TrEMBL record:
<dbReference type="Pfam" id="PF00535">
    <property type="entry name" value="Glycos_transf_2"/>
</dbReference>
<dbReference type="InterPro" id="IPR029044">
    <property type="entry name" value="Nucleotide-diphossugar_trans"/>
</dbReference>
<protein>
    <submittedName>
        <fullName>Polyprenol monophosphomannose synthase</fullName>
    </submittedName>
</protein>
<comment type="similarity">
    <text>Belongs to the glycosyltransferase 2 family.</text>
</comment>
<dbReference type="InterPro" id="IPR039528">
    <property type="entry name" value="DPM1-like"/>
</dbReference>
<keyword id="KW-0808">Transferase</keyword>
<dbReference type="InterPro" id="IPR001173">
    <property type="entry name" value="Glyco_trans_2-like"/>
</dbReference>
<keyword id="KW-0328">Glycosyltransferase</keyword>
<feature type="domain" description="Glycosyltransferase 2-like">
    <location>
        <begin position="6"/>
        <end position="173"/>
    </location>
</feature>
Amino acid sequence: MSKNLVIIPTYNEKENIENIIRVVFNLPRDFEILIIEDSSPDGTADIIRRLQKEFQEKLHMVERKGKLGLGTAYIAGFKWAIEHKYDFIFEMDADFSHPPKDLISLHDACLNQNADLAIGSRYISGVNVVNWPMGRVLMSYFASVYVRFITRMKIMDTTAGFKCYRRKVLETIKLDKIRLKGYAFQIEMKFTTWKYGFKIVEVPIIFTDRTEGTSKMSGGIFNEAVWGVIKMKIASFFKSYEV
């Protein structure tokens, strides 16, 4: 039986965190959860510590001093997962925008389709986004078009943050060399996985915008993606991707 770890970064997620933890643990497959908690002032960590008494050995938390960014949160989680020898490592938001039931679909893509990276894709079968303003839908969709044009990756949802990696992918990627730290981190991780020649499979999901808590999206994040992708592509010409 595989060891499966779901990494969930949190900052001010007290409205969602207990519900998402309970839903994941009630799925008909064995998942553990690692929370990367960035000193939320709203008491998110207190809720997690209470739940750790109930879910001993299954619910883990790494607390960091300050809001240090999405990319660094996941890299901390990846290193923890590698150290503890998990077979499949998942990325997931705390706010239910990523349907927890589709953790099983991502896992199945790795088990049954031999995917090294399975992506929960909003755009592989049309545009499957609920409760987003049209402007944000268009921005997200055309961001993926832009990334495909620059990188030549054949991935429809290049900015997706709902994913499952085989451990060997994260062991191969030089995690400390990943430069993009905001949401563009998701692009760089996919690009690096693709450059190493790993098999990537997109799994259709329906993405639903959060109903509780506050979105972390900002204009600075968007700008990082636009210019960061060009810098990433240029830098790739000078790197070796031999496994």
